[in-house]
Amino acid sequence: MAFSKPFRFGAGILTIALCLFVIHSFTSTSSDSTILNFEKDPNLELTGEPPEPLRRIKGDNYAPDNPKSDRVNATILSLVRNEELVQLLQSMRDLERTWNSKFNYPWTFINDVPFTEEFKKKTRAATKAEIRYEVVPEEHWGVPSWINRDLYAESIEVLKEQEVQYMGKTSYHQMCRWNSGLFYKHPALVNTRYYWRVEPNVHFFCDIDYDVFAYMQDHNKTYGFTINLYDSPQSVAGLWPATEEFIASHKDYLHPNNAMKWLTDPGKRAENKQLANGYSTCHFWSNFEIGDMDFWRGRVYEDYFNHLDRAGGFFYERWGDAPVHSIALGLFEDKKKIHWFRDIGYQHIPFFNCPNSPKCKGCEAGKFTDGENWLHREDCRPNWFKFVGMG
Ligand SMILES: Nc1nc2c(ncn2[C@@H]2O[C@H](COP(=O)(O)OP(=O)(O)OP(=O)(O)O)[C@@H](O)[C@H]2O)c(=O)[nH]1
Ligand SMILES: [Mg+2]
Asked: Which Gene3D superfamilies does its entry note (predicted)?
């Protein structure tokens, strides 16, 4: 039977479309993360709690108004804008449900402008714990005097061409600088040791039944993360050279048990290391951080941050707090003091940490992203596990 030309053309198009659909379906399943990144994804193993000692609820030992509570010196911390109230309430709801409604740690909200009454009213209604509302001191937020405005303007044009996201947004540069080296100097935080950084519109999926801050203290941990990613190398092209310059004059600052290999082994992204001039671009994704601010306040990090700040890369490039914190931890801290919170189910669009545990809901074990399939290439966890382990 002969078909007319238009019919044959139509059938051809349909066949091609069908083939593309089948190929797409096969390449965009979440199980691809296992094939691409791990022989066996550790998030597929049954996940329990970290080792004892763990401090738990006993009677009213964590009640919000108990003046002799077992809480350690810590706060949940969020730099946030008034306009992000709805998204922040989403994050609060999840963290309160899975953890903080049991332990009642205070929330500290910080903003570059005063919080509105609506912001205060609605956040107060979302927790039984104390809340502090703070404004960033002007001297911590303004563009530093040594930044050359012409060079900054030229750099914006150059890096925008290289598609560095947010390059043209000054507040983004200010935020990255503040999160790198200034937040722990806020007068409201100077007497606080541990912090859990929370951003608007993140999700927490798993019930956590122990005091996470006490875990950090009792196990002598400096930093906890959930997700480990490659960065955009164009945004940090000068960061590693500036770091090498710093190390050359401060060799004694390197920790003998550092994670230099994690910072410099290219893993599966040789082009990143090349474009970032020696840095793999692997970093802890810092929208989630549980950390000991005494590390940032120490002499070593203070000198390192000041060196970077003077180099100007928070503005002439787009150095993020994530690579800056990660390089500092990787070089100047004992890698044993960095903890993967594998049991904390977490999402900041578009990436997840999804443990395999009956304590988790709404998070498919092992899921790394719900975005495009190519996003699996951003996963740097295999490097961390290879060079440091899963402790
Ligand atoms: N108060 C205030 N907070 C800010 C400002 N810029 C960013 N933030 C906060 O800093 C954190 C990081 O900013 P985001 O815009 O989420 O940056 P990001 O996570 O790299 O980008 P996204 O992928 O778009 O979420 C969030 O908690 C924001 O609410 C600002 O100008 N003022
Ligand atoms: Mg964000």
From this structure: Spore Coat Polysaccharide Biosynthesis Protein SpsA, Chain A
Domain identity same for 110 and 22: no
The answer to whether 289 is a known catalytic residue is: yes
Residue by residue, DSSP assigns 13-81 as: HHHHHHHHHHHHHHH--TTHHHHHH-SS-GGGSB--PPPSP-----TTTT-TT-TT-S--SEEEEEE--
Same domain, 203 and 244: yes
Domain total in the chain = 2
Average pLDDT by stretches of 10, the chain with 391 residues: 50 54 44 62 96 98 98 98 98 98 98 98 98 98 98 98 98 98 98 98 98 98 98 98 98 98 97 98 98 98 98 98 98 98 98 98 97 96 95 77
Query: What CATH number is given to the structural domain containing 144?
Result: 3.90.550.10
Question: Do 250 and 141 belong to one domain?
Answer: yes
pTM: 0.92
Nearest ligand, CA 349: 1
